[in-house]
Specification:
mainly alpha, five-stranded mixed β-sheet, 9 strands
């Protein structure tokens, strides 16, 4: 594919942009990201990525932990090595915040690089701000993952580098593209392999690409039929645990799928493959083809044949790339239209995007694409509209679509609960609607800077980014105190608790306590349910432990607990906040458990009472040494 030229909306070549103007555009995009993606601390997958880094520093401390004893996703990435190196120089809270910020910078820079190659500087910056503010989700089922994250994981780094690699390939900078994509693969192969497949589709002839996809599918079928271990299906126990604990990996059933949300990017890319400027059509078609193939395999694996290797490959993750490129493609389609049609085109595409989830969004785009493939049908529609569509009727249709788009926008964004906004310098917190704070305010700020003269715009963008950086850390005071205590003089605390680092601890009511307060192995934590698709032993061992805990605390189940599946390892009835003396004795009979810590004393059992230092907890803890109880 020849390098794409930077062209404006009318097809003219865009003049070279001075470096300080480019810096200003990048600062504006970063400011919008900082304002719309506040930092909330070490939560979500940032918890496990932190532990992956700690495992590199203290492998003996977590060797007996069920999450790492049987292997984890950390073996496929070098991000934990980078994390561990930083932990040598700063405490976990500071490193996590720095990595979250760096990941955001890499993601925005990569997105801007691709957008500029496709749309030029002005159009690219507008498109980037739009994608950043929308921050769409991706995945087969629940909206757990979003395209841009503001916590410390490897994903933003890999996604940003993958987008930059695509931009380099499109621009003809092959060596830079290969280097960038190789780095993305090293950091997070699951997030980067979609971009690699797209470049392969661009580099090869169309017939060869289609033949290769068919050959791959045939090889998978034959390998599964031949009984190859990586392509063998997961056993029923493992499958049920993954389906209900990690529904993003294997959906529970067809009703839980978000097909419309997954098909909308494919439909938008196919449409752009017909309506976008000629030089960019094949790129959009390649992304659509790779996404469709990956979704097909993911649906077969998720619903019918959960092959081990394909379930772990998580091909559905290509959805992040399809969604981002589809939004850029929509902007490209709109700007490629004559000026009189741009408003109608943008309104129609916005309507379909907001209608995703109802089954209508992708259906409308696919219908439009089918009409383009059948010229007689498209001409008949145009003739019907021209002959029967009076000016009043057209205004009525436009008004109805506008009202429908506004209504869908309210349903899409307006149902969120108010969030608390912290002003660090003033020590003041206010509540506001998230759409207002994270959508309207960044958009208004970007629009205001856009109106300035070019020589003032860069300085204003840098100033806005500086202010946004000051407001970016939105951790609550309690979260700051909690994270400041992570591994803070843990050696002294372990001595006080009479626990040796590396011994297995169960701490009801403090899920991250063994990992991040003590720096030792955990026994049965909620967070350990993450990543069970990568190891059957991990899943089954954790399930057996949690099932025992549930049996020991069955008398304290809440009525709402019945809404949870027993296969879901995150279910609340698996994670009580207190154990009785009988439960402690029974649980300590497991030779793999060394200590139990809880805040409430269990009657009739010998315990070591310790006051936790500083603000790590609001009360004392009671330590039950299982070796002592087993000898009684």
């Amino acid at each position: 594919m020849p390098p794409l030229r930077q062209r404006g909306t009318a097809g003219r070549v865009v003049a070279s942009v001075p470096w300080f103007h480019r810096a200003g555009w990048l600062a504006l995009a970063l400011a919008v990201w900082l304002l719309s993606h506040p930092y909330r601390g070490i939560w979500h997958d940032a918890r496990v990525y932190l532990v992956l880094g700690l495992q590199r520093l203290m492998p003996e401390a977590y060797a007996q932990d069920v999450w790492s004893a049987f292997g984890s996703q950390g073996g496929f990435s070098l991000f934990d090595e980078m994390y561990a190196a930083l932990l040598l120089w700063a405490p976990p809270a500071a490193v996590a915040k720095a990595l979250a910020l760096a990941g955001g910078v890499v993601w925005v820079a990569g997105l801007l690089a691709l957008a500029v190659k496709l749309l030029g500087w002005r159009g690219g910056v507008i498109a980037v701000c739009l994608v950043v503010i929308l921050n769409p989700s991706y995945g087969l089922g629940a909206s757990v993952l979003v395209t841009s994250e503001s916590f410390a994981t490897a994903r933003p780094f890999a996604m940003g580098l993958a987008l930059a690699g695509l931009a380099g390939w499109i621009a003809g900078q092959r060596a830079l593209a290969v280097l960038t994509l190789a780095t993305a693969l090293i950091l997070h192969p699951l997030m980067a392999m979609g971009a690699v497949a797209c470049i392969a589709a661009l580099a090869l002839r169309d017939r060869f690409v289609l033949g290769l996809l068919v050959a791959d599918l045939t090889a998978l079928v034959l390998g599964a039929g031949a009984g190859l271990a990586p392509l063998a299906p997961m056993d029923p126990l493992w499958t049920n645990l993954v389906r209900h604990t990690s529904a993003i990996v294997l959906p529970e059933d067809i009703e839980s799928l978000s097909l419309d949300r997954n098909l909308w990017p494919v439909a938008a890319l196919l449409l752009a493959g017909r309506l976008a400027p000629t030089g960019r059509r094949r790129f959009y078609q390649a992304v659509a083809l790779v996404t469709a193939w990956c979704l097909l395999i993911a649906l077969v694996v998720g619903l019918h044949y959960p092959a081990v290797l394909m379930a772990q490959a998580q091909l559905w993750r290509v959805g992040w790339l399809a969604t981002v490129v589809a939004l850029l493609a929509c902007f490209d389609v709109v700007t490629a239209q004559p000026a009189a049609r741009r408003r109608a085109a943008s309104l129609g595409l916005a309507f379909t995007y907001l209608a995703t989830g109802s089954g209508l969004g992708s259906a409308l785009l696919l219908t439009a694409y089918a009409a383009l493939l059948l010229p007689p049908l498209a001409e008949a529609c145009r003739a019907l509209w021209a002959s029967h569509g009076s000016k009043g009727f057209r205004r009525l249709v436009g008004t109805l679509i506008t009202l429908g788009t506004c209504g869908l926008a309210w349903l899409h964004f307006g149902a969120s609960e108010p969030v608390e906004i912290i002003w660090p310098a003033l020590n003041v917190a206010i509540e506001a609607h998230p759409v207002l704070v994270y959508g309207f305010v960044p958009a208004l700020a970007a629009w205001g800077i856009w109106q300035l003269a070019p020589h003032h715009r860069a300085m204003a963008a840098v100033a806005l980014a500086s202010v946004a950086l000051l407001l970016w850390d939105q951790r609550s005071p309690s979260t700051r105190i909690l994270e400041a205590g992570y591994l803070n003089d843990s050696d002294t605390l372990l001595r006080q608790l009479n626990i040796r680092r590396g011994e297995v601890v169960y701490w009801p009511g403090n899920d991250l306590g063994p990992w991040l307060t003590l720096g030792t192995a955990g026994y049965a934590q909620n967070v350990q349910g993450i990543g069970i698709v990568f190891s059957r032993h991990h899943a089954v061992t954790l399930h057996a432990r949690l099932r025992t805990i549930r049996e020991l605390t069955n008398d304290r189940m809440e009525p709402s607990d019945s809404n949870w599946s027993p296969w879901d390892l995150h279910a609340p009835f698996y994670h009580p906040s207190y154990l009785s003396s009988t439960a402690i004795r029974h649980l300590c009979s497991d030779p793999e458990l060394d200590h139990i810590i809880q805040h409430q004393a269990a009657a009739g059992l010998p315990a070591l009472r310790v006051e936790l230092p500083g603000d790590q907890a609001s009360r004392a803890v009671h330590v039950y040494h299982c070796a002592m109880l087993r000898n009684v």
